[in-house]
TrEMBL record:
SUPFAM superfamilies, per database record: Ribosomal protein L1
Gene3D superfamilies: 3.30.190.20, 3.40.50.790
UniProt keyword annotations, A-Z: Ribonucleoprotein, Ribosomal protein
Pfam families: Ribosomal_L1 (PF00687)
The protein's name: Large ribosomal subunit protein uL1
CC per GO annotation: large ribosomal subunit
Example GO biological process: translation
GO MF terms held by the record: RNA binding; structural constituent of ribosome
Record flagged with keyword Nucleotide-binding: no
Taxonomy, superkingdom: Eukaryota
Annotated InterPro entries: Ribosomal_uL1, Ribosomal_uL1-like, Ribosomal_uL1/biogenesis, Ribosomal_uL1_3-a/b-sand
Species of provenance: Haemaphysalis longicornis (Bush tick)
Amino acid sequence: MDTLGEPQKVTRARMKCCLRACLDQWANLPGHKSSDTLEISFVLKNYDTNTYPWIHESLRLKYTPEIKVNVCILGGEQLCKEAKDQGLPFISSRGLRSIMKKKRLIGKIADKYDVFLASPAIVQRIPQSLDAALSRVGKRPFLVMPGESLLDKISETKVVVRFRSKNFPYLSFPIGNMDMELQKLSDNLEVAIDHVLSLLPLQWDNVTSIHIAPKNGTWVPVYS
């Protein structure tokens, strides 16, 4: 059956139709770029945040949703050396200690980078103020285990999207780039919808609508 979730809620044909509308719209947007992201937005209902937890999740998509991701490495001497050799920004354990009480700098660091990677030992020693700042924006570090390739780990994290219900009842995050193939966008869209539904206690009864849109574009209804 060519459906997603409950019968006739969202068909795969419907998803592709909406994606084509977004692609056509994007092609006519002034100044559009191939790196422009495709965003998905859920409007939730019947979700009591006093009863159910705030949504704070990591989602592994099938295909990389963003071309450029700003990465920062938090590490000891060896990991920072590897980051330096690869031309990647890093903060050493000494650097982490020096920013403990610099709230403005901590905020700038949390905002500047999309992804943080750290060794297990460093994660345990991250200053509480920085850990809290990263948690607030959904950017807690991914672990780099001993022997793991730093570049491979970065590639792996690019497929992971983090999102949270900070503007309840809205839940939005990127699921692709506008120059991706239609089928890849469709696969990512399906994974995103399935995953969010799995987080909701009433599933479709917690969803008012689902829309998608290119960057700076108009929302296209997938489900309403």
